[in-house]
From TrEMBL:
Keywords: Metal-binding. The keyword Cell wall biogenesis/degradation does not apply. It comes from Gibbsiella quercinecans. One of its GO terms (molecular function) is metal ion binding. Transmembrane segments: none annotated. The keyword Metal-binding applies. InterPro entries: HAD-like_sf, HAD_sf, PGP-like_dom2. This is Haloacid dehalogenase.
Length: 607
């Protein structure tokens, strides 16, 4: 977006300026001066100083950004003391309290990093090229501590190294302070000041100062969808920066695709690389990415790290399927609480539907004194438990079938006795892993380790950790107790980015030598679930591709925790709960879905 200068020569107001209006302004000038950074060229970061975070990662200096800022401030103080008007990159690194060889290495790395970061602004660069090819005099005027050599190195890539450069670091004059740098432009071009049009993004340096020197000025303001917060993590800056540049035309802001790109992409990509590290460390034989949490993880594994993982599969299963498979005649009664869990608000028949059992006829329920249309409350659990026990023969048919099918499915997935299996789940208390081990280990001798995005600090999880081998990427040791609590409290948001465009798997049906999975569509219509899941996963894939290329180009590799930070930032701020897009989602959890009620996202965290 280009805006007219509110005080400029070409009209009052801050309305948008179209390209025709800009062309008219250019026609009136003999010399066209472009600002460089954030005008002619942009960076795929939300804030320029985020580049310092990338350097800190490269050189493993945790507080590099703070050190770099301090050195620059000290360089400015020295500049003032020496009576100079601008600093250079060398001046900055002279103030670093590091050995000379290390300072030189980081200084060169910053130069190289900025070369790789800057890219043409698609809105202005074609116009710039057109003007250079015309009879107009075109120059670049920039306040920057890099010398002209940097700008020449950038422009060479586009065959534009002949463009005259007016760089503050070389000329000991600036735009921002008093506009003296514009005097150099006017003098070198041999024109009067009013014949020069300067275009730039900074109101003080690119509008006010040139006007004070008699030049014409246009205030250019990029129309970016993602402004960012200066306190945000580097992964968020990189993701939003890509959405503002490389992928701006591919992803529409305010869509599930954009949410998948910003949060689902970093969450899945970072978690996957943590899994890769752990699987190697634990000498895992087979990785099972359990549905639906593992849907994107398995796909990304195929595309980006198949050679770094042992055998792996997208394993169609769930806490429900594994719990049903573990139920036997001997333990049926102790598993009735599971069968009744999450049933408040459901009708009695829906208790059976959600486990794949044909419910008793209404007449049968009525004969037992149970109203088929009654909405279940906690007070009904005793009588419903008795109903479940009385109906156990039908339930056991499904449980036995699931157990046989699960065993066959494991064998078809390459799992053998003696294997070490990694069971991948997003979180939170180890219920899925516990059910899996109780169902599987009695029939096949395997060693199971659970890999989790986050494990909650709850008594339930603590109890399971004493008997189960469980590892979490986000835990109080790797982050903090408060972060773990925030992630767990807002787990429904995290789960949204680890979902799949298919129904929850509730069982298995052997069919000869093959196995069919049984899905649960839920009792209430889940409007648009497949569409929003597909859109989120499209965003995840696009992020992974762009982020991989970006890390390679910038010679930087974020750690898994650094990569997943955007989703931790998201759930650490309850503002996400008011997102209208997320508010559209209904009946996300099929286990608790009912024809009697519509469950919205807000209901999961409303007291």
């Amino acid at each position: 977006m280009m805006k007219k200068d509110t005080k400029g020569d070409y009209g009052q107001g801050a309305e948008r300026l179209n390209m025709d209006a800009l062309s008219n302004a250019i026609d009136k000038a003999s010399v066209i001066s472009f600002d460089f950074f954030d005008t002619l060229f942009v960076r795929p970061l939300t804030h320029p100083e985020d580049a310092f975070d990338l350097l800190g990662i490269q050189f493993n200096i945790a507080d590099f950004k703070a050190q770099r800022r301090k050195a620059q401030a000290e360089a400015f103080r020295q500049m003032t003391k020496d009576g100079r008007k601008e600093i250079t990159l060398q001046n900055i690194y002279d103030k670093f309290p590091l050995p000379q060889h290390q300072r030189d290495a980081i200084q060169q790395a910053e130069y190289s990093l900025e070369l790789e970061l800057v890219q043409p602004n698609k809105e202005l660069f074609p116009l710039f090229q057109q003007l250079v090819a015309s009879e107009k005099t075109v120059v670049i005027t920039s306040d920057m501590y890099f010398s002209a050599n940097f700008f020449v190195d950038v422009l060479k890539r586009y065959g534009l190294e002949q463009v005259p450069l007016f760089i503050s670091a070389d000329r000991n004059a600036t735009k921002r302070d008093s506009g003296e740098l514009f005097d150099s432009v006017v003098s070198a071009c041999g024109v009067v000041a009013s014949q020069v049009l300067h275009i730039g993004d900074n109101y003080l340096a690119d509008v006010q100062r040139p006007q004070e020197r008699g030049l014409a000025a246009f205030h250019y303001v990029r129309d970016v969808a993602y402004l960012g917060d200066k306190k945000q993590c580097i992964a968020t800056s990189m993701a939003q920066g890509l959405l503002n540049t490389d992928d701006a035309e591919k992803i529409t802001p305010g869509t599930f695709q954009a949410l998948g790109y910003q949060f689902g992409g970093p969450a899945n990509f970072g978690f996957l690389h943590w899994i890769t590290q752990q699987a190697k460390q634990d000498a895992v034989d087979v990785v099972l990415f359990v549905s639906r949490d593992g849907y994107a993880l398995e796909r990304l594994a195929k595309n980006y790290c198949a050679d770094q993982l042992p055998e792996f599969h997208y394993f169609l299963g769930s806490r429900i399927a594994f719990n049903l498979a573990l139920i036997t005649e001997e333990n049926f009664e102790q598993n009735i609480p599971f069968l009744l869990s999450g049933s408040v608000g459901l009708s009695p028949g829906e208790l059976f539907e959600r486990i794949g059992v044909c419910p008793p006829a209404d007449a049968v329920l009525q004969n037992l004194g149970i109203d088929p249309q009654r909405r279940i409350s906690i007070e009904d659990h005793e009588v419903l438990g008795q109903l479940m026990f009385g109906y156990r023969s039908e339930i056991m048919k499904v449980c036995s079938r699931n157990r046989r099918g699960l065993f066959m499915y494991l064998c078809q997935s390459g799992v053998k006795a003696g294997n070490k299996i990694a069971l991948v789940d997003v979180g939170w208390n180890g219920t899925t892993q516990e059910a899996f081990e109780l169902a599987v280990c009695p029939i096949i001798d395997i060693d199971v380790v659970g890999y989790y995005f986050c494990l909650a600090d709850t008594p339930e999880r603590q109890r399971r950790s004493r008997t189960l081998h469980m590892k979490a990427m986000v835990n109080k040791e790797s982050t903090s107790s408060s972060i773990v609590d925030s992630v767990y409290e807002n787990r429904v948001a995290v789960e949204m980015f680890f979902s799949a465009p298919h129904n929850t798997i509730i069982g298995y049906r052997p069919n000869g030598l093959s196995v069919e999975v049984v899905g649960d569509p839920g009792r209430a219509k889940a409007t648009g679930h497949e569409q929003f899941n597909l859109a989120i996963n499209e965003g995840i894939d696009m992020f992974a591709e762009s982020f991989t290329q970006q890390q390679k180009r910038l010679n930087v590799s974020l750690t898994p925790l650094q990569t997943v930070a955007p989703i931790i930032e998201l759930v650490s701020n309850a503002q996400w709960r008011t997102n209208p897009l997320i508010g559209q989602i209904e009946n996300f959890d099929s286990w608790g879905s009912s024809r009697n009620q519509v469950v919205r996202f807000a209901d999961y965290f409303t007291n």
